[in-house]
Recover the amino acids of this structure.
């Protein structure tokens, strides 16, 4: 296939928006060399010679002498050197057929005249954007002061059109085949665009939702996630919880199993510190954090937020429980401070409170791991050769495989399991369990 | 009457400010009594700087016409003045140019590549796309050229005065155009220079046109050099298309300044053969006939004829010099064209040492907007 470069009128500086083609300095079929003068153009300020940006053969002119063209619009087609068109390929091309029916040049000029009659209010940058996108500004509804078309209006219109086009293309393709010789075509598509616009609701991605979208995209595209799952028998933990809940209630604290999980995780992190780290990609270093700020994912109407419990290793069970409910209520009422969400070192997401039994959470960058806590279910479990009804919860761990190996992660999760299945161990001080 | 003019001429060197000092005639034949004694190598070096400047200037114009350079102020025709004057400086001396001194930048050791990178604002642009196309360099002792006409004049005087007070043996040379002599900055600067005698050399590139305004419509003074005389600054007019004349006088001025004898003003008579900038069309205000007349006084062929007259240059060597620099600069241009563009985010950098929250927010929005534009297949410019 031959590559044909559409040479555009370059931006020749200082607010020049358009120029008049004074004289072509080359003829159709001429070979031109890069930097060779191509055309003389008259702008508001000067008569200038435009050099060719490429070497090749002049295939056809897209603007005639005397015509005014805007900056950025194609003025000539040049077939790049060493990439000649095969004659048989050319003869059969659809473009050639269309060219025979209606010379593109004439058509273009007519359309332009029509456009000029509509008064469009839009700043130059927006006009340029519309031009680049091939959008007729007359069709875009302006939402700015006094009906001025803003940049967002154009982008919204373009996105809607792009979405509609994908749907329309399949159907249009059939029709188009028959219509190759027809002169007027693009109008039909616009009608479909408007119809499609009514069938969808467009929710602007803003605020927390936007941040979430960006961070998750970053996490999934950047971090090679690996996953492991462990089943944990929390029957004993629940009875301990029930026992302590009475004390907590007196202090106005609602005790769930989450604070226990935070405690167990922190203790296990001390033994497996790589999970409490981040990766400094610029310096190729793993930054191991000696503080434990445990993030708790909170679902709010505005989107997902992850405030963290600061220095969770130095806090008691009730204190952690109080922190969790305080952070959750701050999050839901939109009152979190920046400091509440900054400097987290490890995240726990308690999806189980809503009801799933399994899931693979996405890491919250720059952290390297996240623990998913799922729903506690009643399950028959073999204990000493006997099936017993037990309370069981699935814990899933997603980790950054650049920093952590599977075995390391598994050992960590085993330790968390051990603390939770035998919660009395939580009173044993750190490292005492090490063999 | 006669007595008065003789006294004036004696005390104020008015004759120098009214006459024209030249070494070469239009054909390049030297006045042997004034011809400087320069080595063959040095003469060829001067010629090569002139050739390089001419070729680089043509390229910058071409690149602007291709939309690769935002703006360029063509140098064509003024090479003798900028190169002759800059060559008079010693390594420790400082230069305060205007925006039409490509040749002087080359003389101070700036490379073509650096200049083109800057002009194109590509990824290697040392100024990351900010400011006008010409910039300075601390190493090469070149202060960035200001865009407002003549701002550099008081800067140069102040810098020279500081050097004098601190006892540093440096000379400061500043270039500006004829238009600048109609601005306040010129008069403040000259007044201080006359009074405090700092080691400064003023070079007026009198190219006859302040954009579209001719010198005769700017001032009623008979010459621009007499303005210096009025401030007590020794002033002289030279043929600015005669590189040997410019070099000889500038050298004398630099020597004089460095030995504590104060400032000199040089009015260098030249002609801008090209447009004022790439956004200017000189055909609207001056005749082709005038341009033709000055093309005949082009400093490069004139100096070439001198070099051939002296046997320093022959046709073969001349062709070799032009060919070598044409090839070299084209290679540099191609390399600069193939360099990546600056990342768009640079417009947020280098203002605050730590980016404040509102700029960070804007940066985020800007990135998002770029992403949307890119997802729509738009080229971001």
């Amino acid at each position: 296939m031959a590559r044909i470069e559409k040479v555009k009128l370059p931006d020749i500086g200082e607010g020049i928006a358009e120029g008049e083609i004074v004289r072509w300095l080359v003829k159709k079929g001429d070979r031109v060399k890069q930097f060779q003068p191509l055309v003389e153009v008259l702008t508001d300020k000067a008569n200038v010679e435009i050099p060719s940006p490429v070497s090749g053969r002049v295939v056809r002119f897209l603007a005639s002498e005397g015509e005014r063209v805007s900056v950025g619009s194609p003025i000539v087609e040049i077939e790049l050197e060493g990439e000649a068109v095969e004659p048989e390929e050319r003869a059969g091309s659809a473009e050639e057929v269309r060219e025979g029916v209606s010379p593109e040049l004439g058509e273009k000029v007519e359309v332009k005249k029509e456009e000029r009659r509509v008064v469009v209010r839009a700043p130059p940058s927006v006009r340029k954007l519309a031009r680049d996108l091939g959008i007729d500004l007359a069709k875009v509804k302006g939402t700015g002061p006094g009906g001025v078309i803003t940049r967002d209006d154009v982008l919204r219109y373009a996105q809607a059109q792009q979405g509609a086009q994908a749907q329309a293309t399949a159907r249009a393709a059939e029709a188009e085949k028959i219509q190759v010789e027809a002169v007027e075509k693009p109008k039909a598509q616009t009608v479909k665009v408007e119809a499609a616009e009514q069938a969808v609701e467009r929710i602007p991605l803003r605020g927390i939702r936007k941040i979430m979208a960006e961070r998750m995209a970053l996490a999934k595209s950047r971090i090679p996630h690996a996953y492991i799952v462990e089943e944990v028998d929390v029957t004993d933990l629940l009875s301990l919880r029930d026992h302590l809940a009475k004390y907590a209630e007196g202090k106005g604290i609602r005790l769930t199993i989450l604070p226990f999980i935070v405690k167990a995780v922190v203790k296990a992190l001390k033994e497996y510190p790589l999970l409490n780290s981040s990766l400094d990609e610029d310096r190729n270093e793993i930054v191991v954090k000696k503080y434990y700020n445990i993030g708790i994912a909170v679902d709010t109407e505005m989107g997902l937020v992850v405030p963290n419990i600061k220095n969770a290793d130095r806090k008691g069970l009730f204190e952690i429980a109080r922190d969790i409910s305080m952070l959750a209520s701050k999050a839901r009422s939109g009152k979190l401070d920046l400091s509440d969400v900054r400097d987290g070192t490890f995240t726990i997401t308690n999806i189980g409170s809503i009801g799933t039994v399994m899931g693979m959470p996405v890491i919250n960058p720059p952290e390297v791991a996240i623990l998913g806590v799922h729903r506690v279910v009643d399950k028959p479990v073999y204990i000493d050769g006997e099936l017993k009804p037990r309370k069981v919860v699935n814990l899933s761990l997603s980790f950054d495989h650049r920093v952590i190996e599977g075995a390391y992660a598994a050992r960590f999760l085993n330790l968390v399991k051990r603390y939770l299945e035998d919660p009395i161990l939580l009173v044993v001080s750190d490292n005492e369990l090490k063999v | 009457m006669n007595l008065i003019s003789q006294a004036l001429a004696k005390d104020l060197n008015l004759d120098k400010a009214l006459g024209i000092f030249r070494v070469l005639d239009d054909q390049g034949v030297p006045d042997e009594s004034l011809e400087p004694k320069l080595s063959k190598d040095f003469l060829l070096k001067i010629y090569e700087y002139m050739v390089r400047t001419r070729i680089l200037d043509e390229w910058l114009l071409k690149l602007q016409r291709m939309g690769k350079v935002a703006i360029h102020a063509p140098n064509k025709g003024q090479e003798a003045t900028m190169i002759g004057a800059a060559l008079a400086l010693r390594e420790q001396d400082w230069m305060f140019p205007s925006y039409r001194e490509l040749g002087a930048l080359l003389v101070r050791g700036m490379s073509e590549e650096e200049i083109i990178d800057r002009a194109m604002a590509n990824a290697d642009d040392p100024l990351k796309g900010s400011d006008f196309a010409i910039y300075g360099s601390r190493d090469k002792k070149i202060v960035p050229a200001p865009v407002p006409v003549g701002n550099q004049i008081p800067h140069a005087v102040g810098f020279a005065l500081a050097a004098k007070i601190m006892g540093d043996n440096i000379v400061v040379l500043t270039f500006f155009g004829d238009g600048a002599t109609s601005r306040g900055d010129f008069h403040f600067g000259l007044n201080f220079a006359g009074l405090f005698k700092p080691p400064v050399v003023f070079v007026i590139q009198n190219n006859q046109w302040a954009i579209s305004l001719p010198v005769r419509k700017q001032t009623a003074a008979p010459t621009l050099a007499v303005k210096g005389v009025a401030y007590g600054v020794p002033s002289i007019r030279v043929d600015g298309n005669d590189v040997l004349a410019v070099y000889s006088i500038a050298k004398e001025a630099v020597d004089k300044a460095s030995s504590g004898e104060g400032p000199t003003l040089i009015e260098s008579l030249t002609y801008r053969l090209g447009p004022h900038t790439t956004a200017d069309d000189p055909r609207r205000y001056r005749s082709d006939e005038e341009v033709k007349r000055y093309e005949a006084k082009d400093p490069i062929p004139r100096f070439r004829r001198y070099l051939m007259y002296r046997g320093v240059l022959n046709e073969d060597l001349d062709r070799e010099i032009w060919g070598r620099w044409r090839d070299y600069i084209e290679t540099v241009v191609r390399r600069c064209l193939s360099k990546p563009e600056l990342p768009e985010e640079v417009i947020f950098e280098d203002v605050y040492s730590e980016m404040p929250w509102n700029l960070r927010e804007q940066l985020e929005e800007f990135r998002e907007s770029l992403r949307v534009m890119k997802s729509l297949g738009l080229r971001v410019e």
